[in-house]
Amino acid sequence: MLMVCKYFMQDNVSKKPSVKIHEPVNLYGCELDDDVFIGPFVEIQSDAYVGKRSRIASHSFICSHVSIGEDCFIGHGVMFTNDKIHVRNFDKGTLKTKVGNDVFIGSNATILPVEICSNVTIGAGSVVTKDIVEPGTYAGNPAKKLDI
After folding, report:
1. Ramachandran assignment for 125, one of left (phi > 0), alpha (psi -120 to 50 degrees), beta (any other)
2. Cys bridge to 65: 96, 138, 144, 147, which one at CB 3.0-4.6 A?
3. Where in the sequence is the domain holding 50, given as residue range(s)?
């Protein structure tokens, strides 16, 4: 008999009762705040946090030590990484990613361990390699601020 795991959530996942999860998903030791939406085929690893009313679309990967603020939208297939091995002289300590409030990240974007301030839009397919400290719209590889 073939058994399919539709939903995997470790006991140490902290989630509010208003969280909506569409299976299948993999959740490990993360925290999901009020009214969070998690789409199918999402993986969220340990020590990650998703803020109130934020939405994580299908096929996205939120690795350890990522903090996503309130009222954010993470598009389909967005990949967060905590691996900066390709960068010279990187800090070998724990790499963390912080996303502010009201941030929209388009589908298939890749987010390296950076800080993104509030009120930012990141275009689909963009690669964020450096901190974003000014609100606005960013796109490209590497992502740069657009004058729009």
Report:
1. left
2. 96
3. 23-145
